[in-house]
Every structure is written in C-alpha cells, then in structure tokens.
C-alpha cells in the first residue's frame, strides 16, 4: 500500500511479489454505508471476490479511502503457530 500525506490510500496491491512499500494491510476495515453498498456493486461487476484487498484497490479509484499507519509491534496471526507465538509474547507482558 501507499498513502499520501493525508493518509489517503493512493495504491493498494493484494499480496504483491514486489511490494511498492513496506506497508501492509492488517485486514481491519471500517466502511461507511456507501462503502458497504460498494461491495455489492463490485461483486455485481464480476470483480474478484477472493480477497478484500482487490475490493480496496477497486474502491480507491472511486472513493476517498484512508489508512492508518500502525507503528507499534504487531503479528501476522494467519497460522496457529504464529497465534501461539503472539499469545506467548503478550502474556509475558501482562
């Protein structure tokens, strides 16, 4: 992903081989009612339903979409092993 100085998302690529930046999506989205309706428009147009990143790329061409750059520690918990690792680290810091 790439954002401008206002944190507006100006580029978004779902799982790129050569990422345009070090920013990643944590897959936590907040959509307006219009954005939610956009999902139906997107799907009705026959666009890729496989991952929400494809929808975000489509949406930034039509609406103002903003991101938040998180600077703290975070974990990709896409596997049981990585979830256990994150849990272990956070439980030590309680």
Reconstruct the topology from this structure.
Layout: E1 2-3, E2 9-11, H1 33-44, H2 52-59, H3 80-92
Antiparallel strand pairs: 1-2
* Overall average residue pLDDT: 90
What's the end-to-end separation, in Å?
33 Å
Shape: globular
Extract low-pLDDT stretches. none
Rg over alpha carbons: 16 Å
- In percent, how much strand structure appears in the residues? 5-15%
Number of strands: 2
Largest sheet: 2 strands, antiparallel
Q: What is the SS-derived class?
A: mainly alpha
- As laid out across the biggest beta sheet, the strand order is 1-2
Helix count equals 3
Structural domain count? 1
- Give the helix level as a range of percent: 25-40%
InterPro entries: NTP_transferase_dom, Nucleotide-diphossugar_trans
Domain Nucleotidyl transferase: 2-90
Protein name: Nucleotidyl transferase domain-containing protein
Give structural attributes:
2 strands, Nucleotide-diphossugar_trans, NTP_transferase_dom, Nucleotidyl transferase domain-containing protein, 94 residues, two-stranded antiparallel ribbon, 3 helices, mainly alpha
Question: Short summary of the structure?
Answer:
This protein is mainly alpha-helical and 94 residues long. The protein contains three helices and two strands. A two-stranded antiparallel sheet has the order 1-2.
Describe this structure in words.
This is Nucleotidyl transferase domain-containing protein. Residues 2-90 form the Nucleotidyl transferase domain. Pfam families: NTP_transferase. With 94 residues, this protein is mainly alpha-helical. The protein has one domain. 35% of the residues lie in helices and 5% in strands. The chain is built from 3 helices and 2 strands; from the N terminus they run ββααα. It has helices at residues 33-44, 52-59, 80-92; strands at residues 2-3, 9-11. A two-stranded antiparallel ribbon has the order 1-2. The radius of gyration is 16 Å and the shape is globular. The protein starts with a strand and ends with a helix.
């Amino acid at each position: 992903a790439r954002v401008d100085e206002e944190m507006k998302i100006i580029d978004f690529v779902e799982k790129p081989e050569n990422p345009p930046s070090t920013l990643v999506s944590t897959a936590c989205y907040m959509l307006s009612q219009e954005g939610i309706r956009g999902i139906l428009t997107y799907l009705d147009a026959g666009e890729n339903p496989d991952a929400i990143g494809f929808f975000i790329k489509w949406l930034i061409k039509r609406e103002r979409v903003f991101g938040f750059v998180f600077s703290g520690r975070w974990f990709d918990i896409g596997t049981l092993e990585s979830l256990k690792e994150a849990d272990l680290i956070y439980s030590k810091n309680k």
